[in-house]
Known about the structure:
Two copies of one chain form a homodimer. By secondary structure, chain A is mainly alpha-helical.
Amino acid sequence: MNDAVTTDSRALPMPDLRDSFPGPFEVSAYADDIERHAGRWLRTFPLVGSERALSALSQITGQGVARTFPTAERDDLFLCADLFLWLTAFDDAHGEATGARDPALLARTIGDFVHLLAGHDEPPGSAGAFTAALRDLLGRFRERATPLQYLRLTAHVRDNLFGILWEAHHVHRPDHITMPDYRAMRPHTVFVRTVIAMAEVVLGYELRESDRALEPVRELQTAVADLAGWINDLASYAKETAHGGAGTLNLPALLMREHDCDTEEAFRLASRMCEERAAVAAARIVELSAGGGPLSDHAGALKSVASSYVWHIHHSRYRT
Amino acid sequence: MNDAVTTDSRALPMPDLRDSFPGPFEVSAYADDIERHAGRWLRTFPLVGSERALSALSQITGQGVARTFPTAERDDLFLCADLFLWLTAFDDAHGEATGARDPALLARTIGDFVHLLAGHDEPPGSAGAFTAALRDLLGRFRERATPLQYLRLTAHVRDNLFGILWEAHHVHRPDHITMPDYRAMRPHTVFVRTVIAMAEVVLGYELRESDRALEPVRELQTAVADLAGWINDLASYAKETAHGGAGTLNLPALLMREHDCDTEEAFRLASRMCEERAAVAAARIVELSAGGGPLSDHAGALKSVASSYVWHIHHSRYRT
Lengths: 320, 320
């Protein structure tokens, strides 16, 4: 670890989200089951290199998903967990610094997944563990989701994969990324739109398309999407900078460049931005919860999705 | 033009598709209207650099779309034409050799489109003509298509954009691409899955999901998708090699490497592959047309989609 580039994020200003998301956050009774299932799934599809990493990823995914959808059924929680494991493990193994070293190789690997996502079962070029695991996931989602839900979900998974490739291109060239570029792409690299799309699948409600287009719904989703990415940036800042290179494509780094300020001031600004987004989300959740029906279900889902990201701030995955 | 690397494709063996797609191919009475509309749309959204290129692109798009969906209404034909113009102009301006020079820039540009495709109206980073034109297109598709059709279409547009980026990474490194890689990705770079997805929108039928999963339907679509890409490769070979570099990522070049053979033999092999795919498609079209209903409509749509690509073989865009 290079102390010259490492900042202890625990000493930096962090957002205070207690007004908007006071907690305690509801947790599914299946949290430990999910964690055990995650361990089994990662042994069936070896996406993670070491037993230690497997155990850590199973733990945070189990606990995280149990907070994302605390009222969901066990099998649905397993399905969500597996998709999240797949995305996270792929990003860890092939994205970030590895992807930055050879983006063309990353594009070829993603090409196999695009083939499966586009609905083609014939084996693509490679037959690696990630391909096999994605095929397993898509089959289970096809059984569980309506055609609309399936298409929405697989569209967002494409966006996640594109986001990973986009990030690999810019980890070492963050100066090419403007704040609007970053704000547009960050929700995809943190997978939050995919998590939101899963809510309808696992909680058994379906928004009407006219509801989906309502301004309060759109604003709520955007606020939660922003919040998820920014919280993740702040929480993982120390870890990312410790590994070198990857620490420059995140909200504090962009703010430092934009405002010509130091890390502490950037964290202060970023914290205020998080608090503002959390307040917007919380107000929209109250508003949409009032009417009942699918809109109310959706508001409840977004509340727990946001809560699970808020919970992540303090998780040890992000302590160096 | 460098004669040393240019091959006159007119002298090479080409597929004989008359048994499977005998023609004459039905043409919409609106062909000239589409061409005029395309010219107007490209003046509203300046996606093409020169008046000469604008005129050539409007002409082939007008004539091509008039053969793709000969029975469609005028406004639907305009919508199809505009999407095809957008994809083709984007590939010409930002993909291929330009994309290969700076794939990271291409990824950033595509990032703006992913933002719009994911359903977010807030202006992304750039406000260029391609972004404005895509916004126009998506608004019109949203009005015209069912939610399922819209999601299917926008998923395939994502695949097209990913394909353009994938191609940019490999134009100068074609040796990294295996035949299965190529077969998986080529339908996306020729936009044919997107065209197939448009059929239901503009011809007013809707396949049931259970029909979509039928083996004859899947095989028909895959055969037409293969055929479209391979025909395009053969027809554009001379043009592509004349421009240098881009001519190495196509079916003849892959076959030359795989079989260690010369251009003529590669064209002979490729032609046989096209004829085989055309025969499969034609047989499935006959089979699916027999029963009436949406399956029959779909078979008819695939027939005219395939015919429009067959027609392209002899179009002057692909003569150097």
